[in-house]
């Protein structure tokens, strides 16, 4: 008999896979996983196809195609006034999750403590534990999921190595304010604490609000890995293409891991995306595109029994059902699938302790018809 000691003994299949499978079994409308159900721009598809036809089908450089890295650097300079050298401070990755994993693997050693704001994207905590680190969760709660930085300070010890940020935030749709950033600068000043800033929804922010990227602040930029996603930007989550930004000293360590993790990323997609971004200005229109969907979805949901929580960014809308049910959120989520044909995500899945505030998360990156049909069913709850 083969004995095996699991490195992640308490980790099972992610809630996203569980709910998507359940949705498929019951032919439900899937608002659980964060993926669009509408077509990718044909121009982008053609650019990738042209790259394949033109023979760009072999390994890309480990750090990514230079043309794409240069476009990333230009964007950061234009949008945030932040300089990143395309040769030493930009790396193309196989999506945002790989970038997060690689950044953590590059700097976290056994015994290092990592502060995570929960509810949190579910790859953060298991990766820290896999590396022998200690997760220090700081719980945020509805309706606004705001951060009490004085309480965060109490989590600091001599072993605190990193803080993971996510803004716009998945699952809550909250965003960091300038006051949050100033508090973070104050807390990390004169420390060796590093930051991963998960900014994959940076271009999906609403109501004229400004994305407070850590790249805007030199005091944070110097200690931060910034993670971004082309899947969110281009409505192509299945392509698993993203990038990481960091000062040269940090990026050198990142690339040591990256080269043995994936080595390099899909060549024709890199070239296709680069050519597409050179010819299409998509950054300026993305917020309005998703705000229309958010506003429609909120308007429709307002007729249901669910209570809407604020949504300032991302393409997720959280709702409370505490006003009409005491069910556990996982039970409510499953019942919505089996009895009403709509799949969402129970937000307790984003907490280490499974904290249940009776909140569900729905994805509104869907066709109007999909959202309308989903709410028609939710009206019966």
UniProtKB/TrEMBL annotation:
GO terms for molecular function: methionine-oxo-acid transaminase activity. Keywords: Aminotransferase, Pyridoxal phosphate, Transferase. Its EC number is 2.6.1.88. Transmembrane segments: none annotated. Its cofactor is pyridoxal 5'-phosphate. Signal peptide: none annotated. Residues 28-378 form the Aminotransferase class I/classII large domain. InterPro entries: Aminotransferase_I/II_large (IPR004839), Kynurenine-oxoglutarate_AT (IPR051326), PyrdxlP-dep_Trfase (IPR015424), PyrdxlP-dep_Trfase_major (IPR015421), PyrdxlP-dep_Trfase_small (IPR015422). This is Methionine aminotransferase. It comes from Pedobacter boryungensis.
